[in-house]
C-alpha cells in the first residue's frame, strides 16, 4: 500500500549559484518537478510514496532516479526513454527569492509517458493520487494522465491536483485554460495560487474565485496559497485563511509543492472524509502546511530544501505566525 502516488514531471532545476572567477554565471543542478517535490515532502514526513513518470536514458535521468530512491520513493513506475532526454528547467531568482523558469522540453522525456505504461495496481493501492497540469500540456502524457485519473476514480482513490500554470509550456492560454479546467473534473483536493485562480475564474478575490470553482466542479477542498499572506481554504461547509511565517527567504522553488505535501500529510493523519473536516481541522492542517512551505524557502532548490517532520515540529514550537510562505 502507498499513502500517496504522484504522476508527472521529475526534472533538473538549474539554480543560480553565484559567479565564476571570470564573472560567468554558475548554476547548481537541483532535482525538481512539482509532483516529485510533493512526494519528497511526504516521504520526509514518513509517508509511503510512489512515482509514475519518465526520464531520459542520460546522466540526469539516472541522477533523478537515485535521488528518489534515496528519499524512499517507489520508482518501479519511473521509466527511461531511449530517444528523448530528461527535461531541464533553468531557474531565475529575483532579489526576494521569487523565481521564474525557462524550460528545455522540446520534447522532454516527461511528456512521452504513454497510457499503457501506467501500472494500475500502483494507483489502486494508494490512498491519494496527486497530479499537476504540466503533464497535460502535450501528448502522449495528457492521455496517460487522464487514464491514470480514470483508474483512480474507478478505485475510489482521493485525487489531489495542482494546476501549476507555466505559460511557456502551453501552445496558447486558451488551450491551457481548457486542459487545466478539465483536470478539475477529477479533483477532490486542489492547491492553487492567486494568479492561477484569477486566470481560471476571472476573480482575484479568493472567496468569489473559489466559490466559482466549487460550484462548477464540486471540488471538496480548495487551498489558495497567498505568498507572504499564507493561505486561504474552502470546503463545502467552511472557509477561512491562515497567516504564514516570517523566514529568511533564499529560493521559493518547491515551496508550494512542500505545502501540498504538508496538506496531504495532515489529511492522511486525520483520516476523515473530506466533507467531515471542520474549521479546527483546517486551522491545524494549514498551520502545519504553511510551516513546511516556509522552511523550504530557506535553502536553494526544491527537493534539497524540503524539511523533515522533526524540523517542522521544532519550527512550530518556536516561530510565531506571521510573514511569508
Compute the CA-based radius of gyration. Answer: 18 Å
**Biggest sheet character:** 9 strands, mixed
Averaging pLDDT over every residue, what do you get? 93
Structural class: alpha/beta
Strand order of the largest sheet: 5-4-1-8-9-10-11-12-13
In helices, the fraction of residues equals 25-40%
Name the assembly state. single chain
Number of strands: 13
* Architecture (CATH level 2) name: 3-Layer(aba) Sandwich
- Beta content: 25-35%
**Count of the domains:** 1
Continuous helix count? 10
Shape: globular
Q: What distance lies between the first and last C-alpha atoms, to the nearest angstrom?
A: 32 Å
Low-confidence stretches: none
| CATH class call | Alpha Beta
| Corresponding CATH superfamily | Ribokinase
Query: Could you please say which CATH topology applies here?
Result: UDP-N-acetylmuramoyl-L-alanine:D-glutamate ligase
Order of helices and strands: EEEHEHEEEHEHEHEHHEEEHHH
